TrEMBL record, chains A, B:
Protein name listed in UniProt: Sulfite oxidase
Native species: Actinomortierella ambigua
Domain Oxidoreductase molybdopterin-binding: 109-267
Keyword terms: Metal-binding, Molybdenum, Oxidoreductase
A GO MF label: molybdenum ion binding
UniProt KW Oxidoreductase keyword: yes
Domain Moybdenum cofactor oxidoreductase dimerisation residue range list: 296-414
Length: 423, 423
């Protein structure tokens, strides 16, 4: 496939191939330029690379829109320090399946951050990002898992400002409409970062082209988060936002967009972020990756953020139980139920706040819910579960998988003591 | 909204309002013209109206495409006897929310069956229909439910031939493109049948316009099933096929298509086919309908079709356990697991056969799966569960709801005796 090329058009100037990223040894990783970070809001799981999730009570009390200071941080290498004015995004189409990171036969176009912000209209999309490894700790209790042992805090919600990927693709790619129509059904959009990671040459992922081109899919290239320019920790200068999908597909430090007939071959698409069957472990994972589909849309999830396990609540009187719920693919949260007896009986929560995107009508942002219960006894086991608009709900018990992803078992909180005045 | 009108265009001739359907008393229902039906393949749940599901072993052994003689039959009234050549479908757009069955301010267009079959290209879509009440018997065991006590056989798969609804709407509705673009995000398509039912004036439902207009949504108006003209039991002369949705939305005997800003007000949209919360029963259902969303996409489902509970298998040697699995919204079945010990340990099934639509890539048709197990002991509890492409799986135990819909708990088969040669 060729692009028509107009040399006077700075937003579509023909470019050389994007810079190749050499895979670095762990010892070559340069962590000397990490941004300074206030840490009080976070439980830090790793420093190099930096991985941290907010304390659950802070997260839910921060409200529907998570301020950047409370937004979970997930990295696979040092934070790149990219010069905003010099950053170029490379865009291409491959005729044949791509197996590596270099595609010599692709005719690349590039655009700068300035191009992005001036050439196309920007939109605001409120969308939650959730790491596929959210609640991995629940599976680690069943059996050893591979990955950062996350709690239930690797989810946050922000308003992202950027340009629709479908707008850019329709404008820059001179693919005949009929051909694009066919491509939408089978092609993938490979997304690669301008960074270095421990597992591969750079961070990469892909999404189906159908998701990128869906006018109601709301995939954008975002340069702002909650009205501020993206911080380095959150992908400056540019990250993809793929609403309704696991966070791993919302690639930060975006440098390369390649339409190709196959999924990305990046480690993060083919050797990670898959629900391996429960009979697969470290011994036989190598033989299972290829036959296990990669993750896209999230499943239905629900977490109690407050009170937390083993906590003590001071004072008698009603206790406010709060949490979040979300589903993938734009499916809304239709009900949240709470149990105080370990799941034997259930009651509705008092309120669920979830707002669909005003233009697409899709539920990309989480639901925050709350229920006031008269009191909590030390013997109570508080359990929450949610239902989404497709009638899906959550499994009662964790279903272990080696990578510890997509754990959406009923969320349980035990051992909450409420100090009564007469105690 | 007005249609431009070309009187020479038979396919868009301006029509009077569609015939109003008077609600009949039960005593007025005429069941004297029911089609003759071979019954041996079916468990008949009701004769008037006729409701029957195939025996599970026959269903699964009939193969991926269910012949009409094995396809479940779900009705709410007598089967209409519609004259193919005289049948007209009415199509309109309403500016304001529609509260009843008559919309005097709508400018209707009509098309005949001949128009439909000659004016627009036809497509074949393989899609499974599943009644939302499938497996209601499992919830009826928990507590009394309202509805036909279906087993797990109200699902079948067929190849439907018809015209894409989006093709017809784009062609016949002279709605400016920009306006249609906006309407897609908020409008619904009300679908009404030319029939009489016990619960309302006629059968009706609606789907979001976004589903109807999605080129990958594959909603069609079908006049053929498995290569034969539709039979009366299956909706002759015309039924809507809404792949990925509960069967209730695939309206038979289609007579009226109305684009409107609100969901259908039909009984079957607002007082039926909703997952009422578990604390709602016959006493307080009236207050819960309006606050409970109507069903669209199906949840993830998995059923063991053979062997069946309490059966005796003759002969030693491996036993073939077979079943079906499906999810909604075009999500594929990514894994099916089988347990012989009531869900303590799980193994993969040997094979899962599911074919995405060759054009859209969506999984509208069920997966048939099979596993050979060495033997089955009388004490074994055989359990099956599935996972879909969004990582959703099924709840372990049935979650009761008053209408008994969308039961997708783990499917269990007990008390299977295998006669051994030495017994």
């Amino acid at each position: 496939m060729n692009f028509d090329h107009d040399p006077s058009d700075t937003a579509s100037r023909r470019a050389c191939s994007p810079p190749a990223h050499r895979r670095l040894a762990d010892s070559e990783m340069d962590y000397s330029q990490e941004p300074t970070r206030p840490l009080t809001n976070f439980i830090v799981r790793n420093h190099k690379p930096f991985n941290a999730e907010p304390h659950l009570d802070l997260l839910v009390n921060a409200g529907t829109i998570t301020p950047a200071d409370f937004f979970f941080k997930r990295n696979h290498g040092p934070i790149p320090n990219i010069h905003f004015d010099q950053h170029l995004v490379y865009l291409g189409v491959a005729d044949t399946p791509c197996n590596g990171h270099g595609q010599d036969n692709v005719q690349w176009k590039t655009f700068s951050m300035h191009d992005l912000m001036t050439r196309w209209p920007s939109v605001d999309i409120a969308a939650s990002l959730q790491c596929a490894g959210n609640r991995r700790d629940g599976l680690a209790k069943v059996k050893t898992v591979k990955g950062v042992i996350w709690g239930p805090g690797t989810i946050s919600n922000a308003v992202w400002t950027g340009v629709r990927l479908c707008t850019i693709l329709s404008d820059l790619l001179n693919v005949p409409k009929d051909l694009l129509h066919d491509m939408v059904r089978t092609y993938h959009v490979s997304l690669e970062a301008d960074d270095h990671v421990h597992e591969d040459c750079c961070y990469g992922s892909s999404i189906p082209l159908r998701k990128a081109m869906d006018p109601l899919g709301d995939v954008i290239l975002a340069y702002k988060m909650n009205g501020e320019m993206l911080s380095r920790d959150h992908g400056a200068p540019l990250r993809v936002i793929v609403p309704g999908y696991i966070g791993a597909r919302s690639v930060k430090y975006l440098q390369k967009i390649l339409l190709q007939p196959n999924e990305s071959r990046s480690f993060f698409q083919v050797r990670d972020y898959k629900i391996l069957p429960p009979w697969v472990n470290s011994d036989n994972a190598d033989s299972a990756w290829d036959s296990t589909p990669s993750l896209g849309e999230m499943n239905v999830q629900c977490v109690i953020c407050t009170p937390s396990e083993h906590c003590t609540i001071k004072g008698a009187g009603p206790v406010s139980v709060k949490g979040y719920a979300i589903s993938g693919g734009g499916r809304g949260i239709y009900r949240v139920e709470l149990s105080l007896d370990g799941g034997k009986t259930w009651e509705p929560v008092d309120k669920i706040e979830q707002t669909p995107d005003p233009k697409s009508g899709m539920y990309w942002a989480w639901a925050l819910w709350e229920k006031k219960v008269p009191r909590i006894r030390a013997s109570d086991e508080i359990v929450a579960r949610a239902y989404d608009s497709a009638g899906n709900t959550q499994p009662e018990m964790p279903i272990w998988n080696y990578r510890g992803v997509m754990n959406n078992a009923w969320f349980r909180v035990k051992d909450v003591a409420q100090l009564q005045p007469n105690m």
